[in-house]
Write a structure and sequence with these properties.
With 189 residues, this protein is α+β, with helices and mostly antiparallel strands. It has one domain: Aminopeptidase. The chain is built from eight helices and seven strands. The chain has a seven-stranded mixed sheet with strand order 1-2-3-4-5-7-6.
Amino acid sequence: MALTVRAVDAASFDDVQTVLGTRGQAARCQCQGYRLGWYDQHSDDVAGRRELLRDQVAEGYGLLAHDDGEPVGWCAVAPRADLGYLRKTTWSGRQEDPQDPRVWAVTCFVTRAGHRRQGVMRALAAGTVPLARDAGAGVVEAYPMKPAPGGKDVPWGELHVGELQVFLDAGYRVAHVPSLRRVVVRYEF
């Protein structure tokens, strides 16, 4: 496996769609859940969400992983202020401005079937740091899951936000633990 990770651009949209596929939650959501909120994410307007994603990809908000030129992974990375669902999310002790444009957020990973458990998420998580830094972010944060108490694995469908360890390995630090399994991690520049 020869993984490469790069920022997306307008020419990347077809590769992003290849990773998201044509069925399943990734194809339906089009990485809009944290931008639009629960109701709009689950509406029947997949074409509308696809066009929103096209605009985000053209702006460079995301990363693609390729294996020998084949698109195998996607990661959504964008200014947190653009993510309506996150702007409304609060937790005890958080005092910062949710509209701060210097804070970027990692919200989604998708790895194509046949390429899972081969380090794609890990490579994408590591790529979030230079992408956000080069875009002028002061901080990039993520909201990964960790195993439940007792060592139970995280259910597959909940891993779209990433696994805690891949972020720690990329240099992120734990900022807050709002629940038993959810962790907020940050990388400050």
